[in-house]
Amino acid sequence: MSLNPALLAVRFLLELIAIASFGVYGWRAFDSPWRYLLVVVLPIAAAVLWGTFTLPDDPGRGGGSPVPVSGPVRLVVEFVVLFGGAAALWAAGLSRAALISAAVLVAYHLLAYDRVLWLLTGRSPNS
């Protein structure tokens, strides 16, 4: 199910929203001049974390892995970035957006249960 093109598109949008949420937090939670720095640095840090620690054989990604990690470690990275984006929205004072983001993330992970199981057990999502 997780390799369904529609679900892959949803996952990509969730990644973008999470990364942007860190920028929103940097802008809303800090005063000048820090906000100008954090609105750039926080999303870049989240994107670097997301793209660096990956599984080399992840069927949802199209390439190698800069720092190969195990499935459970990757799942933690995904939860830190994705749910961290929702937490960033909450910390920025956008509680409604944070709750909506968290609800959509939970729904996505329920629909993509095969990916979660694959990351935890190593069994292919195609089987």
Provide a concise account of the structure shown.
This protein is mainly alpha-helical.
Note down, in words, how this protein is organized:
- By secondary structure, this protein is mainly alpha-helical.
- It has 5 helices and 2 strands; from the N terminus they run H-H-E-E-H-H-H.
- It has helices at residues 5-29, 34-52, 71-91, 95-111, 113-121, and strands spanning 53-54, 67-68.
- Strands 1-2 form a two-stranded parallel sheet.
Low-confidence stretches: none
Q: Whole-Å distance between the termini? A: 11 Å
Q: Would you tell me the structural class of the helices and strands?
A: mainly alpha
Give the number of helices.
Answer: 5
Overall average pLDDT:
89
Instruction: Specify Rg, calculated over alpha carbons.
Output: 15 Å
Order of helices and strands: HHEEHHH
**Which of globular, elongated, flat, extended, rod-shaped describes the shape?**
globular
Count the beta strands. 2
Across the major sheet, the strand order is: 1-2
In terms of DSSP E residues, the strand content is under 5%
What is the helix content?
A: over 70%
Largest sheet features: 2 strands, parallel
List the topology elements.
Layout: H1 5-29, H2 34-52, E1 53-54, E2 67-68, H3 71-91, H4 95-111, H5 113-121
Parallel strand pairs: 1-2
Helix pairs in contact: 1-2, 1-3, 1-4, 3-4, 3-5, 4-5
Which terms summarize this structure?
globular, single chain, mainly alpha, 127 residues, two-stranded parallel sheet, 5 helices, 2 strands
